[in-house]
Specification:
The protein has a three-stranded antiparallel sheet with strand order 1-3-2, covered by helices on one side. Strands 4-5-6 form a three-stranded mixed sheet. It has five helices and six strands. The protein is rod-shaped and about 75 Å long. With about 150 residues, the chain is α+β, with helices and mostly antiparallel strands.
């Protein structure tokens, strides 16, 4: 639930209600006013409530942190001494390269293990994100770059 539509007597009242539902602050969301509403005649006849659509902002830093934590924990449990290099590409894709250690284990046969690892990292990093979040590409020892 990262996007809500809420009605209220005023736009500000509707925004506050949406922020309460999302558990967010004003700087963490984008607000779209669907209908400003009207007071009507003498505040009685023809009044309409204000409607807003509030959506959580896209924060790639959060996905980067989650992906790194997951990968570091996984590599630690596998007793692998590896480092992680991350960069955002021009295509707004987060590239994570696993360096050092025996990366052949992480690559697997024809890259199948690496592909499965990439899937898991994407699921963990984008859990709870509306619209899918950021796309992550996981590489080990520049395997994908060499294959290109």
């Amino acid at each position: 639930m990262k996007m809500v539509e809420v009605s209220g007597r005023t736009v500000e009242e509707a925004v506050e209600a949406a922020l309460d539902q999302l558990g967010a602050t004003r700087d963490q969301v984008d607000v779209e006013v669907l209908d400003e509403g009207t007071r009507g005649f003498l505040g009685i006849l023809g009044s309409r409530e204000a409607r807003v659509r509030v959506r959580m902002q896209f924060r790639p830093e959060e996905q980067n942190r989650k992906a790194r934590e997951f990968l570091e924990g996984l590599l630690r449990r596998m007793s692998m001494e590896c480092g992680l290099e991350t960069r955002f590409g021009d295509d707004e894709i987060l590239h994570i390269n696993i360096t050092g250690g025996d990366t052949g284990i992480l690559i697997g046969r024809r890259g199948q293990t690496l592909q499965a690892l990439q899937y898991l990292v994407n699921v963990v990093a984008n859990r709870g994100r509306a619209g899918g979040g950021v796309r992550l590409v996981v590489d080990a020892g520049d395997y994908r770059r060499r294959r290109e």
